[in-house]
Design goal:
The protein has a four-stranded antiparallel sheet, with helices on one face. It has a single domain, classed as Alpha-Beta Plaits (2-Layer Sandwich), CATH 3.30.70.100. Strand 2 and strand 3 form a beta hairpin. Helix 1 crosses helix 2. By secondary structure, the chain is α+β, with helices and mostly antiparallel strands. It has two helices and four strands.
């Protein structure tokens, strides 16, 4: 599971947009978005670079966090 801090994910609409961006890369991805905490967890077979690129293309600025 990859974890990201997404400072510009602030609402439910943002959570949907982030989830849709991830699922455009990997439709089977497990996505847990927490807008109040600005945290995103992703379980995916897609590479980290592809996921980050999808989030950035959607207008978000993810910061990778250590696993844990």
């Amino acid at each position: 599971m990859l974890r990201f801090r997404v400072p510009d994910m602030t609402c439910g609409g943002c959570a949907r947009a982030v989830t849709n961006a991830i699922r455009a890369v990997d439709p089977a991805a497990e996505v847990v978005a927490d807008p109040p905490g600005r945290m995103l967890s992703v379980g995916s077979t897609a590479g980290e670079a592809a996921l980050v690129a999808a989030l950035e293309e959607a207008g978000y600025h993810p910061e990778r966090l250590p696993a844990g």
